[in-house]
Amino acid sequence: MSEPNLNPAYTLDQAIANLQQTEDASARYYAAWWIGRFRAAQPETIAALLVALEDETDRSPDGGYPLRRNAAKALGKLGDRQVVPALIKALDCEDYYVRESAAQALEGLGDNRAIAPLMAKLTGGLEKAQLVEGKPHLTQPYEAIIEALGALRAIESIGLIELFLDHFSQKVQYAAARALFQLTGDNHYGDLLITALGGAELQLRRSAMMDLGATGYLPGAQAIAKAFAENSLKLIALRDLWAAHQQKQECSESKALSPASREILKLMDSLL
Amino acid sequence: GAVRALAATRSPLAVPQLTTVLRYNNPGAAVAAVDGLIQIGDAAMAHLMANMDGYNYGARAWATRACAGIGDPRALALLQEAALTDFALSVRRAAAKGLGFLRWQSLPQEEQETVQKAIYDTLVQVCEDPEWVVRYGAIAGLENLTTQAVHYRQPLTTFLQALLKKEPEAIVGERILLALENISPM
Fold first, then answer.
1. Which of A4, A257, A272 sits opposite B174 (nearest CB)?
2. InterPro entries, from UniProt (chain A) (predicted)?
3. Which of A31, A90, A114, B65 has its CB 3.0 to 4.6 Å from that of A18, i.e. a possible disulfide?
């Protein structure tokens, strides 16, 4: 089951060489993406990505660091935890999107050292969590930070995250509900997301659906299947929900398919 | 709104208008039109097939989904091509499932085995698709094919057992387990 070879002529050696050079910014940017996409984890790629994560040459018109964003994303996919300190440092980058990619990467790597630095980004609560003037984003990548804390099982962050249930952005509210379900197991938070699936805006329904998938909250399966959204997305959300549920049940090592599995597969079959 | 009302008539007379809707770049309306065409069923097939070549890519993708849902075996070649080569994974997924649900039982006896084999061979190939959800669709399709084409159960069991060993996506592995259970002799 090979990954799609998007560009068969492109090789790992070429990706490494392109990432190490500094002449051609777009070739370097693509190489960082490619290494993450094909999970090419080895000493040379990781070293080159760590250099790229501190790059000063590739700047966007608004002052951002496009290469750093891709480097952070790729590092989150390679599964090597030695890069955690570098990603924690990237949480302080002036570029919002580098901070967001770093938070997502830290979630992907699942290392507890990220918990305290991520929690520090939530200090100031709702008062600090405002839109940046002239930008389409908040002061911090709150969704990514909160989702990472939930995935990292950071129960010490429950109190901080609860505040964000009242944030003005629905997407931040959903991220908080998702994380709080993961941290407390309280069905109330799963039900909040189910209610959100009935909302009027497609973008928000999609967002709530993916958050519900991440919780593994079983009553969410029916709700996802019935929501007004595209089947492609529902199938992904149901797969995620099944995987998250499965992870929780892992201790019960039984070979037979569980009733929950059967129900979710049946729903997925109906959406093909 | 209007498309939904037209679809609700379930009348073959609505077919030309419903297929016209597939040409607009409006996913909400297209979903309603596809649902309507599937409800109308075989009576919509001739029109869909006759007009397929004139569709733009988007309309063709929606029409393929409609054919996948209708299950008329005249769509065999169309669905084979879509399942194996379409650019959009949602079309490959729907076509794979549709192949497994084609009603080959409605064909003359002497044609059935050829069509079954075409479906089986195609879906086995689709199980190599790089996208998990397309493989999932192919497995659901293969399982359904063998609910009545029972002589494919043994080869499918062998095939799925081998596939299970190399399947990287856990949910697809779970679907393979379910298929193996469903096709195993009582």
1. A257
2. ARM-like, ARM-type_fold, PBS_lyase_HEAT
3. A31
The CATH number linked to B108 is: 1.25.40
Query: Quick check: B128 and A1 CB within 8 A?
Result: yes
Domain limits at B42? 1-70
pLDDT tens digits, A136-148: 999 999 999 999 9
Handedness of CA A145, A147, A150, A152 (dihedral sign): negative
Residue pLDDT, tens place only, B113-135: 999 999 999 999 999 999 999 99
Do B121 and B176 lie in one domain? The reply is yes
Same domain as B66, residue B76: no
> How many degrees, rounded to 5, is the angle at CA A217 between CA A215 and CA A220?
110
- Asked if B112 has any chain A CB less than 8 Å from its own CB, the reply is no
Are B86 and B169 contained in the same domain?
A: yes
Q: Which of B38, B70, B102 is at the close of a domain?
A: B70
Whether the CB-CB separation of B139 and B178 falls below 8 Å is answered with: no
Structural domain tally of chain B? 2
Residues 102 to 121 of A: which have CB under 8 A from any B CB?
none
Cα–Cα distance between B130 and A214 in angstroms, integer?
23
For A138, phi and psi rounded to 5 degrees?
Answer: -80, 175
Q: B186 at the A interface (CB within 8 A)?
A: no
Interface A-B, measured as beta-carbon pairs within 8 A, has a size of 49
Say what the ipTM of the complex is.
0.92
Of B27, B128, B140, the CB nearest to A272: B140
